[in-house]
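Deliverable D4.2, example record:
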Amino acid sequence: MMLPNTEQIEQSMRFFVPADRLGEVRIIRPNGGTSGFFFRHEEISEAAALAAELDPQSKGVYLVMNEIDPAILDGRDTLTVLFGGLTKDENITRRRKLLIDCDPKSAERGATDSATDDEKAPSFEVRETIFQSLGELGFPEPAFCDSGNGAHLLYGIDLPNDDETKTLIQTFLNVLAKRFSTDQVGVDISVHNASRITKLYGTVARKGENRPDRPHRLSSIQSLPDGEIGIATRELIATAIKILSAEPTSLLEQQYDSEHEPTGLIGNLQDFTPTKPKLILPATFAQGEKHYNMLALAGAMRSIGANETEIYQTLLVFKQTRCTQDFDNAGIAKIARDYGTKDVNLSMKALMECDSEEKIEAAQRQQNLKLALEQASKRVSVGHDTTEVILKLRTVIEAFSACEQPQTFKTMTSAELDAADLQTDYLVSDALAARQPGVLAGVKKVLKTGIAIDLTASLASGDRFIGKFYVPRPRRVALMSGESGDATIQETARRICRSKQWKNLGDYENAVWSFDLPRLGQPQTKRDLIKFIHDYALEVLIIDPAYLCLDVGDGAGNVFSMGPKLYDLTEIGHETGCTIIIVHHCRKKSTDPFAVPELEDIAWSGFQEWARQWILIGRREAYNPENAGSHRLWLNVGGSAGHSGLWGVDIEEGSRSDQGGRRWEVSIDGASKIIAENISEHESAKEQQAQAKAHRQLAADAEKLLKQYRKYPQGDTLKCIRERASVNGVRGPAANTKLLDNGLIEECQITKNGRSYDGFRAVSVPVGLTGSDRVFSGSGPGCPDDEHRGGPAPLIGGGPCPAHRDVSDSLFAVADGTEPGDPVTGGRPA
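Output generated by the structure prediction step:
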């Protein structure tokens, strides 16, 4: 039987379900019914294993290829197979992938049959034709996949889930089907809906019966684009619809008139609107002039609103008709790409005459400033709030000024660098350096906010941070916290302050507390934070938490989206000299949730690269709601200044019902001691398990031997008894000794064939008693039955009377430590 490829399944899941997204695996059961399960990005390894486990039991395994609204879970667990409540069109928040499915068609092939190799082969040829055609129109590199019975192309898109998008994709697929379908291969037009499922590559395609000519096959990813998949924009898809809708033979005819001038996409470029100057181009582009003429043509086209694809197509026409020597298509594509994004409001003259990128950008900035001034004037004239208008206008002016004013770079000679008195100033020794941005991060329930408050109080007072780390001198510090609420912050801060040398929260005059959070990434926020730092003369600013400050949208997994937002904090630190620490969360480790947290565990892109120092917190053991005030944590600190270390931190908070209420008691040990204790506990537990296992085995062996002795009351040799009981020669003597020591068997002589041998036989017991009763003659103190009370004390341990125990219990109550003597051979009680 063909088995799934778990590695390919995991690769497929990572392609379709990026960071901080939810995915769904759909199972088609053998009876035709459906089931499925949801999974998060951080659970992909477990999800891939579960999908591989379910694959052999199914007709097919699929994946929802667009972005799913997390609200669909509605309290349900991930990685749990569900038989209802799976993804529908209305549960899709955005469309992220565009599937082109080239499916073999044959009169001999039934709808539920696998394709033959000959039927399948042409689907890859049609796929290649579509890929080449879309590539010429500017489509980015797609993913190439084998569905098992056909060929797939998967393009990246980023479109809303609405009727307009549905119609666009439906029309696009219909155009592709009409243009590229053949008698042997059809382009599937049914894959346009938002909640579309596609093959989970790496699983087996099981259509129909598995026959030599129509075999079941493994689906696979054949290739993925380098880096992140490119995006096919709405405009690009619409252009493809327009161009590919025409008959293939008439495409060039649209673009030429009888004089070989362009008349289709843009029209005759010498007949622009009266407000635009005419573009006069030579009939032939000579070798030294072709690049300039192509730039001028692209600028003129952009000035009348042409997009990148339209510019590219028209430049190709002029290349064929006017260039005396070949012009590289890659060069034409670059010109189209560069000019297709220029500000369409720029004058035609500016676009045509700006012969450098710098001049074009300067013209764009001037145009932006002009438009901003005009819009500001209009807004004020119609009654808009003047302050709001000024703030928006100031942003544009600042951006313009920053670009117009040349940036200067301070330098030092090697001698000056060598002579400079440059030393790292530590806010907290071995844990936190001054003027370097940092992150305090951890998973859920690791007291991130509490530790941030402890850091705030320690910096403000000069007291030790969490009772361990020396603070050289007090600093002005502010904590901005927007998650826990002011009452919780007050209660926690009071408890933490009582654990330090200054007992009263009110005495911490260097600490400033705020319950408003900045909106990072907005220009005015940078200015407002700088003012806040100056107003309170802050040396340290702690912001808690990151996710309430950053409006990242879909950019959390994109370092290029996150970088500029975080860099604002770096610039604020440089300008003010303030050390900025941001509190953030870590991803939960799927393999070992109690392992030491590492820098790579920090959630979202950009934070690992941005942070010059870090305090990472993780749990050493599971959070216990019944003992919620007790925390066993890891503390991993490090930074580019060279400080690093790992400690085990125990924090006792108690509960509100404790006498005196909740508290803040911290104890710290080095990681080596914690690890050594963990190893010792692990080894001790293993030893106890091994001993318990040995005792259970000894009990079972002895019980087998005792049954055989009772079958042969005249007795027999140990070897014969052992062989009848199927007890091997290594364990048999120990079990026999245990029976002998407990008085259940006795030594005797056995005569066989006229020869005498040492043997054993079961001990006779009074009528009404069993062998185990012999051991436990006289019940334990807890027996409720009066008739079992009295008599001598049991030979082994205490506990229930013989009527309430079986033989193995009565012989060996050793697993709980009640058996005296050696654990293997036993020992006769005194």
